[in-house]
Amino acid sequence: MSLLWLAAFGFRAVAASASASTEARSSPPRSCAEVQGQPERITLFDVPHDGNCLFSAVALSVAIVDDAPAQARARAVRTAAARLRSAAMDLLCPHGSPDPELSFGGLPVPLLIEPRGGESESGYCRRLRTAGEWGSTAELLALTRVLRRPIRVCTSFGTETYGDGEAAEGTQPAPLCVHYDSGHYQAATERLRGGSTEPPQGAAECEAATTTAEVAEEAAEEAAVVAVRDALEAAQPAVNSSPSPDPNPNPAPTPAPTPAPAPTPAPAPAPAPTPTPAPAPTPDQVLDAMHAASSRADTEAYLPLFAPEAVFLGTDPAERWVGDEFREYAAARFRAGNGWAYGVERRGVVVRGDVAWFDESLRSTKLGACRGSGVLLRGGEGAAGWRIAQYNLMMAIPNHAALEAAALAERREADTAASENI
C-alpha cells in the first residue's frame, strides 16, 4: 500500500512539475528575460479603482513582499495607502510647495511634478494630498525614498526600476513590484526562472539557450514519468489466466479492519474584518475639490459640494446666486465646457463645531489676483460631511490702483445706465 501511495504522490509531483514547466516555457528563462527587459511571469493583485491606486498598489506590494497575512494585506489597502500618500507629500512639499533642494536622479522636484493647466505648484501639493487624486512619477519616486526600497513598474512596454539607490546603506531589501496599464496601478509579483547569472550576449544566443534548456527539461520530465509508471505497474498484483490451488484450504478468519479515525473538523474560518469607513473630507479638502471640479467643468463633482441653499457671490456686483439658481448657472456653464480655474496660493480655515469659515488668496490667468471667502457647514439635510454654504469671490485690487479701478467702474455703470435710457 505504501508503494502505491508513494507512486501516486510521485506522479502528482511530476504532473505539477510538468504543468509548471509548460507554464514557464511560455517565456524565456531568466537570462533571456534580462536581455529583453521583461519578467517571465507577472501575477496581479487588483486594488480599488478610486484614484488612490498608486498608493494602494504600493501598500499592498509591501504586504505581499513581506509575506503579511491576508487580513494585513486588506488593512494595507484600507489604511496604509492613505499614510503613504501623506508621507510622500510631506517629503515632496514639506512647506506647502515643492522642495527645491530635493531631487531624484539629478532632477529637482519642481521639474518632476505635473500640475494641471493654470495650477500653481502649491495648488498641486494641496490637491495631491486629497484622497482620490492620481499619483504620478514624482509620488512614485517619493515612495521609494519613504520606504527605502526600489519599486519595479511593469507595463506592456517593459519593466523599469525606480529608486535603485534608495535602500539604507548595507541593506538589500526585496524590490516592490506594481503593474500599470490603462491609467490603473495594481500590486504585482514577478517570477523569474533560475539560470545562468551571466546573460547571453544577444537574441540569437538567448534563443539557443532557451531551446537547450527546454530539451533538457522535457527529457528529464519524460524519464520521471516513465519511472513513476514503472513503479505503479510493479505495485499491481499479478493476474494469471488459471487460478493456483489454495495451499491452505482452511485459513484463519481475517480480522476485521480497524476503522479509520474520524477526520478532524476544519477550523472555523476567521471572521471577515470589519471595513473601516473612509474619513469624511475636511473643509480644506472640500474647497480643494471645488476648485479642481470647476477647473475641469465637472458638474457631477462640483454641485454636491454646496449646501441646498448655498449663496455664491461673483465678481460682478449683480452676481448673487442662491440655491437652485446657482446650480442652473454653473451647470449651463459646465455643459458648454466653460469652467473656471483659480490656483490657491494661501488659505486660512477656522473650525468651530459644525461651522467653518475661511479666506483664500487666488490667482486667475484672466483676472489676476483674486480672493475667496465664505462658510462651510457640517451635516444638514441629506449630508454628514462638510458642504459650502457661502462662497464670496472678488478681485483683489492693490491700493495704488483702487481709485483708477473705481473710476473705471463708475464710467462703465454710467454708460450702461445711459444705454438703457435710450
Notes on the structure:
This protein is of the alpha+beta class and 422 residues long. Among the domains are: 41-191, Cathepsin B, Chain A (Alpha-Beta Complex), CATH 3.90.70; 283-417, Nuclear Transport Factor 2, Chain: A (Roll). The protein contains twelve helices and 13 strands. The protein has helices at 2-24, 30-36, 53-65, 70-92, 109-112, 121-128, 137-147, 203-235, 283-295, 299-302, 324-335, 399-421; strands spanning 41-45, 103-104, 107-108, 151-155, 158-162, 176-181, 184-191, 306-313, 320-322, 343-352, 355-364, 368-378, 386-395. The protein has a six-stranded mixed beta sheet. Strands 1-7-6-4-5 form a five-stranded mixed beta sheet. Strand 6 and strand 7 form a beta hairpin. Mean pLDDT is 76; it is low at 1-37, 195-210 and 235-244.
- Placed side by side, the strands forming the largest sheet appear as 9-8-13-12-11-10
Helix/strand/pairing category: alpha+beta
Low-confidence stretches: 1-37, 195-210, 235-244
| Radius of gyration from CA coordinates | 34 Å
Overall mean pLDDT stands at 76
CATH domain topology of the domain at 41-191: Cathepsin B, Chain A
How many individual helices?
A: 12
Q: Would you count the extended β strands for me?
A: 13
Cα separation of the termini? 113 Å
Quick one: overall form? elongated
In the CATH hierarchy, the architecture of the domain at 41-191 is Alpha-Beta Complex
Q: Tell me what portion of residues adopts beta-strand conformation.
A: 15-25%
Based on the model shown, name its key terms.
6-stranded mixed β-sheet; Cathepsin B, Chain A; disordered N terminus; 422 residues; elongated; alpha+beta; 20% strand; 5-stranded mixed β-sheet; 13 strands; Nuclear Transport Factor 2, Chain: A
